[in-house]
Amino acid sequence: MNIPHLLQQLHGGEARGVARAISLVEDQLPGAEQLLAGLDRQRIEKVLILGLTGPPGAGKSTLTGELVGVLRRQDIRVGIIAIDPSSPISGGALLGDRIRMMQHALDPDVVIRSMATRGRLGGLCGSAGAAARIMAASGCRVVILETVGIGQSEMDIVRLADLTALVLAPGFGDDIQAMKAGILEVADLLVVNKADQAGARRLQLDMGTVFSDPGDREDRICATVASEGAGIETLMERIFFFEQLYRQDGRLQERRRRSFTLETLDWATEMVKARLQEKMKTPRFECVEPRQAALELVRGLVNEKVNYKKI
Amino acid sequence: MKKYRVLIGKPGLDGHDRGAKFIARALRDAGFEVIYTGIRRTPDEIAAAAIHEDVAAVGLSSMSGGHVRLFPAVVDALSRAGASDIPVLGGGIIPAEDVPAMIEAGIRQIFTPGTKVETIIAAFTEACAQQHGQRE
Amino acid sequence: MKTPKELQSWQENELKKTLDRFPERKDPFTTHGGREVQRLAVPEEIDRNYLENIGFPGRYPYTRGVQPTMHRGRLWTMRQYAGFSTASASNERYRYLLDQGQTGLSVAFDLPTQIGYDSDDPMSLGEVGKVGVAIDTLADMEMLFDRIPLDKISTSMTINSPAMVLLAMYVVVAEKQGVRSDKIRGTIQNDILKEYVARGTYIFPPKPSLRLITNIFQWCAEQAPLFNTISISGYHIREAGSTAAQELAFTLANGLTYVQAALDAGLELEVFARRLAFFFNGSSNLLEEVAKFRAARRLWARIMKERFGTTDPRSMMLRFHTQTAGSSLTAQQVDNNIVRVTIQALAAVLGGTQSLHTNSRDEALSLPTEDSVRTALRTQQVIAHESGVADTIDPLAGSFFIEQLTDTLEREAVDLIGQIDEAGGVVACIDNGFIASQIEDAAYQYQQEIERGERIIVGVNEFQVEEEATVPVLRVDPKVEDEQVARLQQVKAERDNEAVQQALDELGRAAREDRNLMAPVLAAVRAYGSLGEICNVLRGVFGEYRGRQW
Fold it and tell me: Which stretches of C313-453 are DSSP H helices?
């Protein structure tokens, strides 16, 4: 793969270059490090990585599609990474989030990429984070990271974001109730979507109790009807408001450092795991107890000279 | 195993996507990552999505008779976007007598009604492997 | 033997009233050899279970049929759905059919028309005139019904999202013939809810779509009382791969959603409920299908009576059209399809259908040729005139198997409707994907069974033969598209464009103000505003439905 050419393409905003670069990283092909090291750091500095998560059925894709519409009317280039789970049985995946964003399919300044979790413990955060930076380097001012669900792995991905909005809808709040206390750990904004449906008012009041400060209650809860485009501009304004705030008070920088650690650990785990698996195949390896075996394995790895080519 | 990404698209206006969805699911169950565009997409939209998603193959389905104009239009749109290396396969209500013209227009393979799903999966696997082989 | 008193009451009331007005087709009906065919077989002992769950035709709960004499009084309407490329070609065919004694038309529109695009819209590329006739402006509709007296025929139009526009065009064409809207008869499909989960010709989001529908209910109640305002369709749900119970449940759930929407819009139940019609699929599992039709009638009557409290028998009666299952046709050994269609049509007739379309053997390949359409029609005629099944009413009633299956299907449907109610109703279940995913799961499972050979489809995964593709295929000339585009451009050049713009502006205002849209749509149509222009105004106000995430 000709990395300088690929970098040139993606920095020029060419769709194919961006797409190929993301695949390169996602498939962990040779040249990935070189590519990532060559990305435009200034653009990465400027980008806002917006996490969008919530239970399935809350209307995230529709909301994303509408947010993209608002951004495009302001002539802002935007990227979307939509993450869906892989089938644990076949390893395959159905990625259907695009359906609700197809109105932007022909816009050269909207970059959409679907990504499957590929059932891995490590690697996904790394891939998603790298994809966000590739999009940023291609000129995206905002990258939306959309995940389905409110489980642990989704939360991990969300931690890559500079700012996260949790999307809820009436009838889909039950799971949230159980974890209300933890909401603030992940969400900067709460979006009550389908606000025209029965139960929306209650959900909104309910979510209000999450915040002790009445000012937060006002600022951090947004009502939308994504299917009709209602409330989207206000939501976008709030998002930019908090971005500004977080950049000023240093929270954004702190989050970037956190996600750097997370991604690094993620990649390292992935690399070590692959190496460990390989080492276990060697015939010399004989132990009766797994714990003992693990210790042997790690000792061996630590003493080993790292061959970068193999990673 | 190598993860192949494919895109299943429905060009034209017909909304009967039972077949498209079946193939999408069957490919998922065979280990593919399948991007589905939904119904009523234009050839340009399908080509753009295929490029953004960096898929190794595109599958098209049509039930309204629109394949005559629409399938070649997708091949054409891919080629105009500089992605003529992405193979296009097609299926749906397509009379056998249309197949030669479709192949002529650059469709890699056409599946007429009643084709077994294993045949279709094997064809996608082969097309994807070949496309990946061409990547530098 | 003494006649049970309930039977006697039915004979003296419902039956007598009907016979006085409409004598049966024959008197008496006989078999070869002269044995008289019994009108209605009933058990010797009529118990409470029989009366509550089975009863008599034309009497609640209508399990055995909606009319007291059923097909003995009048055969079902043999209504073949057809549409041809352009308005003038279709007109020619319709006039031929009417000359042959047909009294009803069934208009198939092409996909751009069904989705509210003009023929010159980029989205229409390759689709103009393909699966039906292309209608852009009133001029096309005038040509479609040229020299066809709209006071004498009934017209069924398969149109959903833009149904109001096509209805308005029909009304104006009638008006120009001197036929007032209270004289026109026919049906518009107008069933948007199933489009979101199965057929796909939606334009607007569900809420404004329901408004268009209730606007039509209201306008027709006042101005066109003989027109069936909706045909609530399970056909396409089944074609998308649902089970029989799902078809039943989702169709009736859609039906009650329309009823509720109309009530919420302030309409009187008794005024619109009797104009509701249904449309089901006739599949190959003969006994299950018969049970499905019987369960549908009984369940709808119960819903209308118990949920909505109607006392008007006509509001409780589920009248339905049937089409044989297009998805069951195979491209292999196409003649086998004639046999499939025969079984499916028989199920519809035994199930008491009011009208029937039989598919043609070659429809797995393309639009049907004239020869195969004739055979399809002949299939109905053989069932009607030779099989004898139309000479008695609900002949499968009382079979342990059929009655138990009828009960089971009704119960399964009630369960599913309950789940939908619980989840916030049909619109919420379109939105969260519940209905579509139920259908998709059933479709996937069924197809997997075929792939694995657990379910035999004759000629497809068993009993195959080597065959050459020798079936003649009907094609629409691609020139049709270019001609239609030219025609539209001519109309646009000749009309008063200022008047069109004014009418469209007024339509936009009405849409934003929540007024009934029928009047402004009529005005726009009269000014030769095009279907696409009218729909675009509404798109601007209502937004577009983007499809469900998958």
Answer: 313-316, 336-350, 370-385, 400-422, 426-431, 434-451
